[in-house]
Amino acid sequence: MADAAEIRALKYRYLRTLDTKQWDEFTATLTEDVTGEYGASLSFSDRDTLVTFMRTSLGTADIITEHHVGHPEIEVTGDTATGRWYLQDRVIAPGAQFMLFGAAIYADTYRRTPEGWRISSTGYERTYEATLSLADVPSFALSTGPAIHLPETAADATSATASAVADQE
Fold first, then answer.
1. Contact 107, 123 (CB under 8 A)
2. Helices in 20-151 by DSSP H: which ranges?
3. For 98-133, what is each residue's pLDDT tens digit?
4. Whole-prediction pTM value?
5. What's the chain's Rg over C-alpha atoms?
6. Cβ-count burial of 115 within 10 angstroms (0-12 exposed, 13-18 middle, 19+ buried)?
7. In this structure, is the dihedral angle defined by the CA atoms of residues 119, 120, 126 and 132, taken in order, positive or negative?
8. Which uninterrupted H or E stretch holds 6?
């Protein structure tokens, strides 16, 4: 049971650090040889490639993500484990006036390392995906909080945008 609890904490940390853009901590959740299969279009064969993609694609104030997993099904066999999770997620790109939300089933493998459990493969298959143009929602407004770790210039720009929106209200 202790191993399963550590794996749950690892998965939650993986998602929290992805959403809050804490890239060093996110990297530490993965083995160097991790593979990733996110739907039909995103495939990675090592940690550096996966983290670089996430940092480049999601690491700015232009993209806000929210990931929730639950219903873990974890099976531990010695120093390896598998896990299945139900995912609900949202991606908001205010500059592109776009929002995606959906659900999927994550399938992971884990490996015990000297540093603790790490994700050695991860990925999901969608149950559904829906998109929305934010232009259809004229009252939509977004500001980020201090939990999201943005490069200083991006954080300043987001704060300035939020201040401008607040001034208009």
1. yes
2. 23-27, 47-58
3. 999 999 999 999 999 999 999 999 999 999 999 999
4. 0.87
5. 17
6. exposed
7. positive
8. helix 2-19
